[in-house]
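Board notes, transcribed. Complex of a protein with heme C.
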Amino acid sequence: KKVWENNNCIGCHTLLGEGAYFAPELGNVYKRFGNSTEAIKAFIRSRPENGVPGRRSMPQFHLTDQELEGIAQFLKYSSEINTANWPPNIQG
Ligand code: HEC
């Protein structure tokens, strides 16, 4: 949660509906990425420095391995909260 807050992920993303509508909902990203913390880490690790030019995209955050593991576990935890099946589709 500290990694989430310190990097202002919510400035672009929503988490269970709270946040900004610039980027995908992340409350169910763990499920969207095939129940894989490794896939989440790989995505965040592989972002280009300033995002993809000309396209709405995510920048590089230079997170340490420990921060990456922390944010991936936080997003896994978030996906396991009982939200009565909200959001209603896997896209978020
Ligand atoms: C400047 C805006 C911005 C910030 C800040 C941001 N992101 Fe993103 N993020 C995006 C955009 C846009 C996408 C859509 C995919 C892309 O980059 O093309 C995305 C995609 C993602 C995805 C994949 C979602 C999917 O369903 O494909 C994950 C996971 C993610 N971000 C995690 C994070 C985390 C964790 C943080 C904070 C450390 C963060 N983001 C901060 C803009 C942002």
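Residues 7-9, 11-13, 22-24, 26, 29, 32, 40, 43-44, 56-59, 61, 71 surround heme C (CB under 6 Å). Residues 59 and 82 are 30 Å apart (CA to CA).
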